[in-house]
Structure formats: structure tokens, C-alpha cells
Amino acid sequence: MSAEFLWYIPNQVGPGHRGDDAVEGHNSLDTLTRHATALEDNGWTGALLGTGWGRPDTFTVATALAARTTSFEPLIAIRPGYWRPANFATAAATLDHLTGGRLRINVVSGKDDLAAYGDTEGEQADRYARTREFLQLVRRLWTEENVTYRGEYFQVENSTVVPRIETRGKRTHPTLYFGGASAAAERVAAAEADVQLFWGEPLDGVAERIERLKALSAEVEREHPPLEFGLRVTTFVRDTTEHAWADAEAKVAEMAARPAVAASGGQHGPLPGNPLRRTAVGQQRLFDLAARGEVLDDNLYTTPGRFGGGGAGTTWLVGSAEDVAKSLRKYQNLGITHFVLSDTPYLREIERQGTQLLPLLRG
Predict the structure, then answer these.
(1) Are 199 and 283 in contact (CB under 8 A)?
(2) How far is 267 from 285, CA to CA, in rounded Å?
(3) Distant-in-sequence, close-in-space partners of 209: CB < 8 Å, separation ≥ 6
(4) How far apart are CA 239 and CA 245, in angstroms?
(5) Alpha carbons 303 and 310: distance in angstroms, whole number
(6) At CA 20, angle to CA 83 and CA 284, rounded to 5?
(7) Which residues on adjacent β-strands are paired with residue 73?
(8) 69-90 confidence digits (pLDDT tens)
């Protein structure tokens, strides 16, 4: 199976995201453009741009980067509630038109500072039911004209989005990525997403979830092409296996020495009494991996999650380029075809992994 390889661009107000080099103007257009053009120059398809209240607006950043590049494909994280579906569908159709079909979308339903932009938390079931309607309606607005939709959360009347999305081969609209590990999230993915993204779980956990999502797709009578699968994970690559593990352990030691982590007893996340404990099902699955061992499979390092790692930084695939490529090919053999990789410093690792890791994965 062919695979696509994307990176991650940190659009953050504060510098030093996950140990990135803190430089003046770290989130300026010039600096972020250096990331995007480096991705083009080093063989990457594009990059995920994260979203959340208190961060630069993801869609605006992606638009600016697309205007300064020629092949870079932004995977733009967006949230229902922050966006109304018809407004979003129009904005996305416009950017897709202007970029010649380079747009990808990651729909996020996890918790955020929703009240800050006028949204409400609601129950998990309501949040994912709304997301399902959002995905249904956006897809229809991209592929149909004169759409009338009357859902519980969203309604439109005789709505046609312009410019129209141009069909490009099998691509009829921007690819819709989605995450989430709860039962409610998985039913939404099985019914409405194009790609389900997983965090860096061991192979057995990913295999289990793929089989469950395939079964759910049949159960919910999925109407779209078969669901595809992606992996979002930190790839910690050095010239040799020994060098990689030495650097990884040194970096975790630095994380453990930070005051906020030391004050929590060295457990940033998994302990029930910890006020920093994450509640998202997918994130908790990652934290729980540490109980199975510090290293799972061949080289999945779980210890970063104990000392401040979160999201894609909770587990790391550690090793030489050959080690990490071997592990990623095992995920690919399970059915993963979309990879979103990263490590810090982001700009340096774009080149390192682009020249050392990508040729092995594509060869």
C-alpha cells in the first residue's frame, strides 16, 4: 500500500513547543514559511497545523503558508462550534480552489476553552453527534448544490457553496481526517470521516482499533469509500540506535527535572490524583501504556508521557532511521497509509528525517 508522509508545524504564541528551539519571531510568517518550504525541499507532502483557543487561528496560518509555497499541503485542524459548517465549507472551498487542490482538514472534537468563543461543553454524546452532523453537512456542501439540511444542531436551506470543489482524479473534496478513541468518536469516524488518526499506540492496540472500525463501518452502513487510517507520532531519529537512545533518555531526564513535573512527583498525567491528568480516552490510553513497560514493541518509548509528554509527544519511536522505518512499515502493514511525524527542533528534524527516514520508507 502506498503511504503519505506529513509533518507538524507548531503555530504557537509561546516559543519552545515540546523543546523546540526558542528563536525570536518563532511564529512569524517568515519563520513558519521556512518550515513549509523545508518540507517541500525535503520530500514531505505537507504538515498538520494544530488548533485550540489561545493559539493563532489555524486557517489563517495555513492560508498564508499556502500562498508562499507551491506543493505544500496544509492539514488544517478545525473545530465544530468555532466554525459553522456552511461558513467553513465556503472558506475551505475557496482555499482549495486558490491552491489547486492542496487542502486537507482535521476535524477535532476534543475539549477546548469553548466558552471563550461562545461555544458550550455539553455531554460527550452531544459533542460527537454535532460533529457527525458537521461532517455530513460539509461533505454535502462540497459535493452537492442547493443543499437543504435540517439536523438537530445545524440547518441550511437551498445552500450552494462557491467556488465549487474541483474533482481531481479520485479526490472529490479535501480529505477529512478525524481522531478520538471513545466509542462515540469511533462511530463518527466509521460513518463520516475519510481518515481515522491514531496516536502512537503499540501495534496490537492499533490493529485492534482498525478491526473494530472496519466492523463499525459495516454496522453503521457507511456510505463513503472505505475508511483509511493514519498515525500521529513522534519519531526520534539519530545516526545510530545507541545515539538515539542516549539522546532520548537525556531529553526525558531534562523533562523530569522541570519544576512543574518535579512538584507532581514525576508523574505528569497518569496518576488518578494528579490535577494535570488528561481525561480524553485516547490520551489516557497513551498514559496507561507506561504500566506495560518503558519500551513496547521494538522501540516505542512510553516514558515521555510520565514527564510532560502529551498528544503526539506521549510516546516516541526511537532509533536509527533504519529502526524507525522498520517500525513504521509494521504500522503500514496493518493498514496505516497516512503518517504525521515530528520531533524537535522541528526545522532541523524536517531535514534530518526527510533525508534519512523518508527515502527508506518510500524505497
Answers:
(1) yes
(2) 15
(3) 181, 186, 196, 198, 201
(4) 11
(5) 11
(6) 60
(7) 46
(8) 999 999 999 999 999 999 999 9
Pairing label, strands 155-159, 73-78: unpaired
Closest CA to 316 of 333, 294, 346: 294
Share of the chain above pLDDT 70, in %: 94
Once rounded to an integer, what is the mean pLDDT over residues 339-358? Answer: 97
DSSP letter string over 217-242? HHHTT--SSPPEEEEEEEEEEESSHH
C-alpha separations of 301 from 75, 137, 184, 312, 316 in Å = 26, 40, 29, 12, 5
The amino acid that residue 31 corresponds to is T
Burial track 283-314 (b if 16+ CB lie within 10 A, e otherwise): bebbbebbeeeeebeebbbbbbbbbbbbbbbb
Predicted local confidence at residue 21, as pLDDT: 79
Quick one: cell of 89? 465549507
Contact 44, 350 (CB under 8 A): yes
Task: Look at residue 83 in the predicted model and tell me its pLDDT.
Answer: 95
Write 262-267 long-range contacts (CB < 8 A, 24+).
266/306, 266/307, 267/306
Mean pLDDT over 222-246 rounds to 98
| 95-129 CB burial, b ≥16 within 10 A, e <16 | bbeebebbbbbbbbbbebebeeeebeeeebeebbb
Least confident span in 52-61, 208-217, 281-290, 343-352 = 281-290
**Burial class for 172, CB neighbours closer than 10 Å (0-12, 13-18, 19+):** middle
Residue identified by cell 527542533 is: 345
Q: How far is CA 71 from CA 37, 50, 333, in A?
A: 9, 20, 28
Q: For residue 225, is the peptide bond before it cis, meaning its omega torsion is within 30 degrees of 0?
A: no
Residue holding cell 523533562? 255
pLDDT in tens, 261-303: 544 444 434 333 333 334 578 888 888 888 899 999 999 999 9
SS3 for 13-32 is CCCCHHHCCCCCCCCCHHHH
What is the C-alpha to C-alpha distance for residues 39 and 56, in angstroms, rounded to an integer?
21
Tell me: the pLDDT tens digits for 157-207? 999 999 999 999 999 999 999 998 899 999 999 999 999 999 999 999 999
How many CA atoms lie within 13 Å of 352's alpha carbon, on the beta-carbon side?
Answer: 19
